[in-house]
């Protein structure tokens, strides 16, 4: 929770920097896009905007010609230069509740200042402009900064400094080498530097700070950890998970797609290619007749799994077409969010209220994604066709063997059941009079099904019945063995690796606008794949050669256009997300919405410069990241003063470096690294580290058991942690839910988060092993403390901190000496080996102290 | 003065003692002064107290008007109880038993795939006996004797209707206003708008239970209590049915509360030093949140300690009350949370989905929830809490008045999902007592009189909390969102 600035006057100052419609300084002309359009959008477009269905009085204020033309009544809303003749102005200032706008019924009101501003704008001739984000970025000139201090590193700084100079704010000095190496290591690799790396960098910085830093950045960009760190953000927006979601929540095996992302990022695949392969990899390479798959095609097919990462509802009673249509909705909306920064959901049911997206535009994109062979049924297994089978022979063999074990065991069950449920031989259990007593679903799942074919759900329902309600211990023992065998078979089956991919129906489905987005109510309006009309002019410059009209675009056409210069948004939204990852907030704060209702960029020229630079450099992600982290802006100290904080609480002006709590997954990886526990094995099936017992069981009514892994799997990077969609890993907080596309995760500060980092076995074990590490390194407490501090925060503790902590250590030793069993408990948390000879009291005391260090605000924060 | 005031007063004192008593907290004046980066210690203390005490603050201009209810207990019956077997008595069903339901009633309607393709739709008479109860003469089935016994406290809405025909979308619709996952749920909206009355416990708590035989496969999805686009601090805290009710609540094995206290004192001290150096107010918030975590470690076990409950109270909730994770246990917990100031308590019980086992399972479900539901309402009333607590009881839709399955297979009788009409009831919180509102047709098939849509129900709940449902909005992706989307009318006739 952020505390509100305490001085209203300074708050107002900051607000004018970003918010629309606030007082514009006298003498400065009113800007349509900065001041006027947001006011019109917020207060008028709801009834006088792009949506023709709900437009009132035939008046439209989102299009210049319509707003300046005479309406039905003959009155003209806006007469440039003549506020007294403009009906808009008259209505704004009317005191008649029937006349005044916005209408009282709309729950929208304008302040006196806002009304005056609109009037002034009309008086100034009502200059009009298209919404900034829908026009292609123009490369702005880099501002010249006279005598910059501290030194400017690249054009990013020039834009930031120009703004700061206008605000009369000084930038901060550079962060110390130590602070910098921690910040940039976490940002680029997701793990903190080792103590040796810190020392080496500090030494190199003494000689030549500039080349030392650039070498460091190059090393980090070349590290394979880079792809692992940046994959996380992409997985959040791709709604990647290891299960379908919804009832049953069956497992899927999309991890080869996840590994593809990591590899592509590490190989620095240009973002345009990265996009095209994921949206349309299946259409890139021709299918060959040969039995072995061409590696390029194979990889592109895996990449196309991007749009199979959505949830899939296989709930019983579910209408397949409803599921299929919802999946297409999800693909349309995810695409719009990721590559257009557009919120398309509204246009499912009607023309967008604020942005120039028509309902037909929505269904035109729907048509493009409507050509997948997926039917909406068959979600129960989690791996829904079309798929790419990547299973090895050994894995297939394991399924055969575990099934064979069930088959032979089933004979034993049959013999037993022939006595338990007397009936003519060869008949199913249901034909026995004794089967009539079975409750719930058991007649269907148990009595009607031959033992060899019974599934885990039915068996788990049978077990409590025959244990508690109608006890039969011998039968229960059989059921228990049966459950174990079925679980083993299901586990083997789960290793069958089928990546869900995209394909294209040979004969396209027809697409109609759906009334209110209801899959059952097709309207008569048929649409074919095309770009949203607002982009159609720029589409003329698209890379695609026009074919027979009407040109029906497919996924490949769309993908190519999204990353072509003709798309005004593709590069902008991408560089903005990168900025958000480094500074905590994007240049456009609403990174999910670049539309009229989104926030305007804090530094519009910088955004456009970065976007054009990104494209000019061939959509080179690593070059973009390098550009940002080598800027003086990024390298500033994040210390702030009360005055500066009040002036700019969110650091939008960038007069200081970023400081905010790290993502929870990174906090975990950092703790594992500090303890020396992190296992750097890359890729492969997801792993199941510590989790409190019963989480899956409770969420799935006992149908899914969390089988924790052991050994190295406990210490893999968070990226590889198994993500059950209906109940995500509990060790993470403020993480994307991986249910729908998330481009911006929340950053909150709650007691529940404190409980995780204080009590989760992952953190307590990390503290315990960190304690072992420092105990082994030195016999001296002050040296041990120094090392623990440096491993976690990269710095040594101050004298004051040392004093506090060594005093605490003394107390802890006394406390644990008085309770050795407690010391033993604490010193043996987690499965990692503990040296036999280690003194329990000492170990427990140091474990406690290390846990404290792992919970420092500084540890939890990037600073 | 409400009865829980002394309790809260005590905890407020505790807060300040913990924070500012040097002996307990060990945080010196100098460190305190640095917490908010300025010199005046008194101001710092006030500001810090404010941060701690309003850990989940509401919006400054809310409520919009004087509320009738301060909190909500929503007893959500997951899976959809059969309205025509429990509350909506229709003699016509018995009369038509086994005959095809008339087309003018059921024709052209959408059903789930389980009966969507079934052409025979014989009417199924109610499977148990109904009687009228109390002065109000409410019809309640004999499967629910305890609820029947408090009929004069209840406000039945018999003309509910919804849009979704499957569980997850329908529940999501009820709780978030949208069938698709991802919008804030009712409890999140309320804690966002109104904040919390206690700093020791979460504002929005969820507790789930299921039928004993786990006959139904319904899952409690976390988006039933999600915060959607609201900050995650407003999402419901799901108390667990086993072990620590709050995840990671317990200290690690071997770490006593005394040891933890000492560590947290030093942690606060070191963070305070940091705050002085960096000037980031987020650090002061972090100190406060760690302190709250420590307090929750005491307040949650106190909350779950039933040792001070009288035998009579415990007996009223039934034999399952001591089993953590049971519906009865959760109902008693709901009362204890309400007493301590939690804003929204969502108790969910799964197992109402009787497609093929109405004759066996419906009674079992009713036995699970009947006594505890009634006990909760009586208990709240006894303690003077019912007045300002709105209790809601109901599922996500109703069940078909016609049969799913074959009429000759009595054992396999069931009813399918039915969005066109169903019943829910409320109590306390400024709704009428002994009152019944709206009606269905003579088959209980369509709501026909004074229909109440889910959005109307939501608007009404917000109204009782002093909120105008059209004004409690949050801007996301360029649009002002609200719980009721762009619909909903407060059903004033239900209110006192």
Number of helices of chain B: 17
Q: How far is it from the N-terminal to the C-terminal residue of chain B, by CA?
A: 21 Å
Biggest chain pair interface: A-B, 118 and 100 residues
User: Which structural class fits the helix and strand makeup of chain A?
Assistant: mainly alpha
Which oligomeric form is depicted? heterodimer
**Main pleated-sheet profile of chain B:** 9 strands, mixed
E-strand count of chain A: 6
Low-confidence stretches of chain A: 1-23, 538-549
What is the β-strand count of chain B?
A: 17
CATH architecture assignment of the largest domain in chain B: 3-Layer(aba) Sandwich
| Annotated CATH topology of the largest domain in chain B | Alkaline Phosphatase, subunit A
Q: SS-based structural class of chain B?
A: alpha/beta
CATH superfamily membership of the largest domain in chain B, which one? Alkaline Phosphatase, subunit A
Q: What is Rg of chain B?
A: 25 Å
The mean pLDDT of chain A is 90
Strand content of chain A: under 5%
Main β-sheet of chain A, in a few words? 2 strands, antiparallel
Mean pLDDT of chain B, rounded to whole units? 85
Tally the structural domains of chain A: 5
